[in-house]
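User: Can you predict the 3D structure for this chain?
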Amino acid sequence: MTVDLDETAGPSDRPLRGLSLRRATKADLDILTDMRKECGWGWEKLPARVEKNRDWILCVFTKEVDGEIRDVGMGGWGLDWPEYPFMASRADKVVYLTSLFIRHAYQGLGLGGTAMDLLEREARDTFGGQVVTLDTARYAYDSRRDLQVGHDSNDREKVSSNLSWYVRRGYEEFRDPVPLFPDPRPDDPDYKIVAAFLRKSM
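Assistant: Here is the predicted structure, written as structure tokens:
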């Protein structure tokens, strides 16, 4: 399936449980950058993904709060990723869900689950995905304590809350976890957080 970003066809504006989305454009670059910085990672890739790009589409989640429409989060889809076709491939109808973030002021309201429902719906209905994929931190980590990443003080493995949440939503790990997310540290500037790779049939 080919998606032409010059066309008006794109992510739908059908709201779900009070949450809506709009396709991000260059005009949204500042708000998206603010969100990624609030999240703590990923703002460096934004300019290339907000530019006219057939393979990566970002969206802004909006919700009416106190009578005003507010930008409460963001997300996106990868439609073709030649370097990692197991994560996104038009030919195989695999859509990668990316950049999900709900602003801190609106967390704890159930918006993350609704946002995921919207991302999955659009992956299936708009982009023709039969499988959706994503990646997330594999292990829990407390940077305030000098513990091996992913283990508690008794050396028991602790998966991240994000991974547990996705598993409850029906996602399954389908590849071995690997160090992926850069997290430079004073004693190890090349340190990377271990990622889990998940997928779900639509």
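The chain has a mean pLDDT of 83. Residues 1-129 form a domain with the Aminopeptidase fold (CATH 3.40.630.30).
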